[in-house]
Specification:
By secondary structure, this protein is an alpha/beta fold. The chain has 11 helices and 13 strands. It folds into 2 domains: about 180 residues, NAD(P)-binding Rossmann-like Domain (Rossmann fold, 3-Layer(aba) Sandwich); about 100 residues, UDP-galactose 4-epimerase, domain 1, CATH 3.90.25. A 7-stranded parallel β-sheet has the order 3-2-1-4-5-6-11, sandwiched between helices. Strands 7-10 form a two-stranded parallel sheet. The chain is globular. It starts with a strand and ends in a 6-residue tail after the last helix.
Length: about 300
């Protein structure tokens, strides 16, 4: 049985669909029921901070995925992520299930060159420090032979159902409404975006292959483009002029006074004024997997989630 902790989120839903398409038995675990339904799919209520509830919810699991996204607040991250990760590790120890943690790149900090699975952790944000600590804790337990665990790491997203992506929210949705787009930081700098359906497929492949255990994997992600290239590409697909405004740090800080998630993004501003080059060659070679090119992903978004008006 494949169990997803933090069900209902964008990545969890993509993984659930992939598992459903392959007739797997699935247990979804979250505090609120999810909308997805299907054959051999059940839901259990549990809080990630409550180990007893989690242990009851994961009974019979062979693979447990942690795909949770906590409230985007550094204080909450400092308080809750260590507890969530310790519970996750304890589940692996007690059940013997394989563990797969879906992670981001905050622990790397500012990287000069491509981000690789071997890139050392050098966080330059509080959120990055939290991520570095929990990722290290998980892999230390795996190296010690106490659990079987791997980390699936992704770049910034696009193709989200909830606009939990600045590219979706500030470019695709804007052009779908024939409005001017926005771009955080310097549009001349490079950036990657991981396509959500590819994240579901990537996680599924890790779940199917025990040989992938006890490693870090960068999920399949197309090579970076400059912000201006992303803007031009999207404008061409939506049939609009590539109008946009660059959002500077001060503007984020001011808007963040009234919007907590935006406030939480200010410390990550370094990612948008420097080249951000996420490399997934290891995964692509190991699984013979080619990530969706941006032209295809954005075109599909223009026909589905962010339809042209």
């Amino acid at each position: 049985m494949h169990t997803i902790l933090g069900a209902g989120g964008t990545v969890a839903n993509a993984l659930t669909r992939e598992l459903l398409n392959n007739n797997e038995t699935i247990r979804l675990v979250s505090r609120k029921p999810t909308l997805l339904q299907g054959k051999n799919l059940t839901w259990k209520k549990a809080d990630l901070l409550n180990y007893a509830e989690l242990l009851e919810a994961v009974k019979g699991s062979t693979v447990i995925y942690l795909t949770a996204g906590l409230i985007y607040d550094k204080t909450i991250w400092q308080q809750q992520w260590p507890v969530v990760m310790q519970n996750f590790i304890n589940l692996g120890k007690e059940t013997g299930a394989r563990l797969i943690f879906f992670d981001n790149v905050y622990m790397y900090g500012l990287v000069n060159g491509p981000m690789l699975e071997t890139t050392p952790y050098n966080p330059c944000s509080i959120k990055g420090e939290v991520r570095a600590a929990i990722a290290t804790k998980l892999m230390d337990e795996a190296k010690a032979g106490n659990i079987k665990a791997s980390i699936a790491r992704a770049a910034d997203f696009y193709g989200t159902e909830t606009m939990n992506s600045f590219f979706d929210m500030m470019v695709l949705d804007k052009y779908a409404k024939k409005q001017s787009a926005q771009w955080i930081g310097d549009p001349k700098k490079l950036h990657n975006f991981s396509y959500i359906p590819d994240m579901g497929k990537g996680m599924y492949l890790l779940g199917q292959n025990p040989d992938s255990d006890n490693q870090i994997w960068h999920m399949p992600t197309a090579a970076p483009l400059s912000g201006k290239q992303f803007i031009d590409l999207a404008a061409g697909i939506y049939g609009v002029d590539p109008k946009y405004m660059a959002v500077k740090k001060l503007m984020l800080q001011l808007y963040g006074l009234f919007n907590k998630p935006v406030q939480g993004s200010v410390e990550m501003y370094y990612q948008y004024v420097n080249d951000y080059n996420f490399n997934s060659d290891k995964f692509e070679k190991a699984f013979n997997f080619k990530p969706t090119i941006y032209e295809d992903g954005v075109k599909l978004m223009s026909e589905t989630l962010y339809k042209k008006s």
